[in-house]
# Entry
Amino acid sequence: MSSDVPRVIEVADQLLEAYLDPTAAEMQHIGSYELPSDAQVEHVIDMCRALLFPGYAGPDVARLEKSQLRDLVQLRVDELRVALHRQVYRALHHKRQQMLGRNELECADCTRKAQDITERFITHLPELRALVRIDLRAAYESDPAATGIDEILLTYPGAYAVTVYRIAHALLREGSVIIPRMMTELAHRRTGIDIHPGAEIGKALFIDHGTGVVIGETTRIGDRVRIYQGVTLGALTVPQGEARPTPGSRRHPTIEDDAVIYANATILGGETVIGKGAVIGGNAFITSSVAAGTRISGSSRTLK
# Structure
């Protein structure tokens, strides 16, 4: 071991020198304000799910009386408010310091903005519960293998990923950016399903199996759409440099109501529309629009 010490010291010194290189400052964050925490953002997701699905997520509530449950729900909402505010604040503060080129440890303006975002998000919890209930019912009705909503809540990766997307999307609409992205990436790690929180998704989405599904930022999905594993709703090649599209510009397809997209299909492009009730077969490669009610075979390649 002693013969390796000089090598360890040399490598450590080289890394330290790299850390101090001002041209690589974006690659580290040392001795400064706090950044958002993966672990705490995951805890926020768990807290949201415990409020949406009490008993199925979070601590057991089976033996509580109604009055006790009321007190517990109020406590959990307040705990969520505090935990979420801190993470939203950290993300806002970081972006502000980057923009201004500063290293201030606290920011009163970011505190106020984080509070407003958090308070508005909290008010969406009842409607989020109603929305994910529709998703769960769609999963049950679309999958004859499901024995009940309980099985879907406990085991289906698609249900988990869609619920986290719903939470993240609501938070994104209220003005938080980094935290919603962290939320959906945490769901991606757990389920293999990658849904950008900026996507616009209607009611009753069902993602079956799910592994490898990718839904890009500007995708628009209507109501009662079914998607199977390996599906990509993506962008065509993105230009670089000055031609790079501005954030939020349409790059991903539109999927209209009641469409079905089977396994490993790829649908690309901001001008591509899959019409209402269309069925896209497995492994199809689509870069131009498909009329309502059309059935596209798995061997099809539609190119502009």
Summary: The chain has a mean pLDDT of 93. The longest helix spans residues 66-100.
